[in-house]
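Q: Got a minute? One more chain.
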Amino acid sequence: MKPRPAAVAGHTCLFIGLLDIATAVFPHVRVTRIERIAPYVPGLADDIARAAALASGLLLVLLARGLRRRKRRAWEAAVTLLAASAVVQGLRHHAFVAAAVSALLCAGLVVFRGEFHARSDPRGRIRALSNLLVLGTLSFGIGLLIVGVRAGDEAGGSISFGDRVQQVAYGLVGAGGPLTYASDGVGDAVHLSLLALGLVTGATTTYLVLRPVRLVPAEGSARLRALLDREGRRDSLGYFALRGDKSVLFSPTGKAAIGYRVVSGVALAGGDPIGDPEAWPGAIKEFLGHCERHAWTPAVMGCSELGGQVWIREGGLRALELGDEAIVDCSAFSLSGRAMRNVRQMVHRIERAGYSCRTRRVRDLDDAEKQQLREAAAAWRGSATERGFSMALGRFGDPADGDCVVVTAHQTDAAGHEQVRALLHFVPWGDDGLSLDLMRRDRTAEPGLNELLIVAALRDAPALGISRVSLNFAVFRAALARGERLGAGPVLRVWRSLLVFVSRWFQIESLYRFNAKFRPEWQPRFVVYPTARDLPRIGWACLQAEAFVVLPRPAERLRQWTRARRRPFTRPPGAGTAHRSAALTPPTGGGR
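A: Always. Here it is, folded:
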């Protein structure tokens, strides 16, 4: 829970900032009820200060969230802004009440300065300065172009270039310049255009100053791999801590570790802590302390029941059942019996159509085949971006992942030519288990290939020393299963109906049905969170981490486009018509 001084300061700055913006942009607001409190609010001294009110209001709105999250740089900026406001209001505009309010708020922030300790990105200041110089210069140039295009509408005598420069400089901060226009519409258009350029420059610069820390991921950490070699069999999700976009924190003893990623101010950990359960409390305290120092909201996706209990006990957090993980005992698996009739018939039909499967360790593949399978998996992907986070590795064929297992489905035509039509990729789960990472197939191939691949993996597992396989994760499986039973209550039925409706986009029900075909043992998984009010933010962060929501990142997209232009594309065998015809059939997703 956020400390009260930080929350009060953040909401106060937000309220004052919105009032400043409202009175600067909409002058008629002054004749409403706000007029009664205008003399007591910093920034609302008189009409002459409209431009200053707009600038200060925008800055206060931008600083409000940073103050609520206890950001040190937001505190420094707010103290400076309020101190300057108090001096200007008192000495220039003689608005002593407003100056007193500014001074009082500034003093309150100074008194509670210890609450604002969260760090920001140390590279933010350099990037903010670069943004101010580059974008400010570009905005100034565009402003000169706008003023120059409207030169024919200028009123008055001869206008010099210096007057136009002064007009742009004043317009970027929301003030009026020396130029006047024959038409009010033209004058308003020029003023609003310059103001928009200034707001964009100021907003992006402030964001870069206050942006959260971006940590360097700990991909391929030898220390983490050694820990997985000793304790990796405890959790089927442990190997996914080696994702390239995850960072890792170790306990003080080094016997436990937590892999996490920061998304929209939420530190998302996946699965249970890695290592000895006796060392989990140390790793959890280290993680929570790290989140506290950076004002991140801690959250855990997909931890086990034991892991959830430790998180609740050590961190004072809460847990909510997220779904169930399907785990199959390879020694007990069989296609015999009435319950497996549909799977048995489907597998035999696919085999008669000329399909066969191969199960191998990644280390046994040559570089050419790795590249072929990597390109095929990318072409068969149903989305523009790779999905998955807590249960996906995010790469294929890395030399360090030699213990991973790949199962491929091949089709031989009448001429004897063989094509790869589908693949599964598993990561190690200790020394006797596998955890499903990737499931892809060619859309043009016959349905049922996924079932054939999983059956082949379960059949070949004992030869590789594998006794258990973790399949897909079924979200809210218990609600779907109980809601269709005889005697289910109205609340449970409504909840199940809602899940079925949402499954049109997220395939919740179809994934559960697919997993159930193999008669697995269901292991519950939980999401751990601080308070109920944090759940919307955590849910939004999870959607971004799993790539169900992809926010635009122009710089990153430009780098990807540049790399794609430099690298020639070779269509993998059986890729069909590339992405548009390669939509996945259930189950889908970058990972499970």
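A: The CA atoms of residues 183 and 396 lie 63 Å apart.
Q: Perfect, thanks.
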